[in-house]
């Protein structure tokens, strides 16, 4: 299978879509685009969460809850992002 075969397949689908009625095009495109957009949104969400996790309130709450379980006073809790910044300097 080569790129020309893939491009021929895409051209065939495009030609078919251009030739069918509008009322057929809309459901077909929605059936393809909605799952595709949902997957892309999930991927973007995971990337953003991975990049920003040290700065989220959820991580700060987890750090505070862990320190309470360990008996550390809450005024001495250092959020994970600040902890890494202090250790690198």
Q: What is the subunit arrangement here?
A: single chain
Q: Taking Cα atoms only, what radius of gyration do you get, to the nearest Å?
A: 25 Å
* End-to-end distance: 54 Å
Helical segment count: 4
Largest sheet: none
| Residue runs with pLDDT of under 50 for 5 or more positions | none
Residue share in helix: over 70%
Give the tally of structural domains.
2
* Helix/strand order: HHHH
Number of strands: 0
What's the pLDDT, averaged over the residues? 79
Q: Which of globular, elongated, flat, extended, rod-shaped describes the shape?
A: elongated
Strand fraction equals under 5%
Helix-strand category: mainly alpha
